Amino acid sequence: MNWIPGIFRRRKLHDDLSEEIRLHIEERVEQLMSEGQSPQEARRRACIAFGNPALVEERSREVWQWPTLESILADARFALRQLRKSPGFTFAAVFTLMLAIGANAVVFGVLNALILRPVNVPDAESLHAINQTNDQWASYPEYLDLRARNHTFSDIAAMALSQVALDSGKDPSRIWGFEVTGNYFGVLGVHPYLGRLFDPSDERGMNSAPYIVLTYAYWHRQFHDDQGVVGHMVRVNRHPFTILGVTPPDFRGTFIFFAPNFYVPMVNHDQIYSGEGNLNERGGRGVIQMLGHLRPGVSEAQAVADLDTVGAALAKTYPNTDGHESFALGRPSLPEVLGRPVRAFVAALMLLAGLILLAACANLGSLFAARASDRSREVALRLALGSSRTRILRQLLTEALLISLAGGAAGLAASIVLLRRLDTWQPFSGVPIHVPVQPDANVYLVALLLAVVSGFLFGIVPVRQVFRANPYEIVKAGSGARAGRRITARDILLVTQIAICGVLVTASLVAVRGLARSLHGNFGIDPNQVLLVETDLKISGYSPASIPPTQRRMIDALEAIPGVERVGLVSFPPLGRGGSWKANVFRDESRDLRPANAAANSFKYAISPDYLRAAGTTLLEGRGFTWNDDKGAPPVALVNRQFAVSILGSPANAVGRYFRAADGTRIEVVGMVEDGKYLSVAEAQQPAFFVPVTQQDPLGEQWMLVRSARDPGQLAKSVRAAVRGLDAGMPLDMLMWTRELDFSMFPARMASLSLGVLGVLGAMLSITGIFGMAAYSVSKRLKELGIRVALGAQRKEVLQAALGRAVKMLALGSAAGLLLGILASRVLASIVYQATPRDPLVLAGVVLAMLLLGLVATWIPAQRALSVDPLILLREE
Amino acid sequence: MPVVDRPMTETTSRDLFPGALEMMILESLRRQPAHGYALVQHIQQRSNNLLQVEEGSLYPALQRLLKAKLVKAEWGVSSTNRRVRTYQITASGLRHLEQQISSFERMFEGITLVLNPGKSPAN
Question: What is the ipTM of this complex?
Fold first, then answer.
């Protein structure tokens, strides 16, 4: 530890040394004078004999220095002094990097949270989700078979989503949670925060485990941390359930987007779930996710092979329900259906953010090169005085690194603020969906890494310049502009940067335009002025037999409200957040009704006669339903155009033809309606068919569409009063359909928003880039411009001389960027509905945007070039 | 100790190999303590001015020796009544010098053998 006093001794050492050197030279001078030299001559000779005292001193000091650290500190101090001298440059550089690194940190923060970070449970790395490769969900019996027959997993747990009416004695509310198998907590290794969690021993057959486990967040919110709730009874869909315990605060379920409020045993599914079908039905699709740890020593490939074997055996035993299923392992945090587009999108964003950083580096690289050539005189002087080139380079690099670290720190700070905001953001009221993107050490590390790498990237741009510099020439001639017609590295950087910005601007315009179009697109419905009323008759305690008459009474009651034009009833509204039913349909001539033989997996809606008019869906041909299409009448359906094309052969004579449902029922097509969008606005055209609600098993959850021009708030009040008039205890949720659509618009909106932000960033970078380049070239050539003006050059000629090059590069870069952007935008089309780069408006927009950017960026340099006063300039020399 | 191969700046003089200067300084100090100026004078005289050592280059070498605790320095007054910083060789400096000299002699022997094949090194 003798370096600690060493630091304090250092100053003394340095003073001693300078004194010693001074005395040495004195002694030599005296010696020479005593030999008869004149004092001046003596001093000159003494100095020649000694060599460069400053260099000697530096070399001597270096002996004592902690070799690198101290010289780095010295470089840093020097660089800080340099930067303080040009605050404008420093600010521009730091700001640019802040934007670029901040954008990268935010995108990486999202990537990290959604894709890289494992679920917060012990041993998360070996936890696998079991996905069916056809993206279908499994049935509970299938899950049981897989669990029993596989040889590669130590255990498999399953879960499903469900919404229940929870009544804890106060205000009953509908909340979202997970139905899980008894071994769920055991498989994940989650321990209770309070009370206990259920386990396999609690399950003794169907509806045998009326237990509920609350999440910490829900317990904290609803029960105000009351430890006494354990053992209490609550009503779940009017069935008594006992609160067993509370999960720990840091466990938020296995889905990353979806924070449940509670966990209930899946064996009690039939009490909890209000939709059609029951848990033990083969071919049901209730199990959303299966997950488990592999046994020690088992590889993923072995596990998949094992599962496929079981799947094949099941398909053989139950050909009508379990199609030949193959499996893949995935990460549990994102279900595969969601995971694929999310991953693709985040990866694309990361790529764009990387491009932004690259553009920023190119931008700063050319600024640094310009700065280095401005400082070439200083550099030359230092070279002439004996400084080594590596030393000078190190100083330039230190300067670059200081800037990049400052920019990185600022960017990281901004991104942390943004990520925290995003983390607490709940885009949809009522659905516990949120994006947990708390930044962690990984994000900090990546930001630091990016800062250092980009510092090196733009710091080394001037290297060649410094190495080539000939000190004698430069000191003699000054760093005046030598009219270079060659293409320099700086030009290439600028064109690259503008091209990248062009890509970003194109991509963001394509996305925004696509979103604008899809907002006004035709979804086969008219959601304006429609209030959605969601109720659940099963939850409200109605028996299957009493549901149809109740539905009629509710429709009549709502139709009686003044100002209400139409009232329709549907299982799930299209493009709603409740999702949608899908059913396998078969051609009329099909006799083999195995899933593999289905003509299509079509959307299916159960509707009341007036639904089409309430929803604003146009009937193209045939007739709609009447209340007479009930169980006593022959089964009928309406199909959309796509259904007619892909399943019935042609839309021309669809009406009157037949198709078969999965149970073999022949259904007559009595009408054809227009195509629409059903699950997502970006989906390709899908087949859909509609059946009368009166020919279906009674609906539990149902949505009523109330079309009225009245004020939504007033209307909601009247609707509530009307429903309460029939049943005072019926829970009901109301929302305008246009708001409900936000849900399906969400991905497109997020995509357009993030691309828009990146586009703006790109535009800002290209402004600073072009501005820097134009301003630099004008200031370099002021003298030349002055002479031109003095010799009678016109404004146009002056501008051409000053900015011609900049404009040419802008044009070149924009063209390249536009082309690349069009190519890149094809990827976008999969996320943003109707996003197409082959849109004259987009092309014109990009060209116009780049022109505007160029105009803005060159305005000030152009003014400066035009205001050149030759007299002043020429007098200076 | 490798010989550094640098381009010659002038045909008549060449850089010393690393450590050579330190060795000469230690040898001078072994005879008697001295300050920097006196060391330069001494080395130049003893080498019949064949070694043109830039005076300044002495100081980094002295600092290296100081740091390695092979010499120690003290401010004092010289016989000519000047304020000087006098260097003195330490015990470990003496040991180091002996090692250096013997390794230098072996190297020199080797070089001579290569340059004058057939002749045995003069002793």
Answer: 0.80
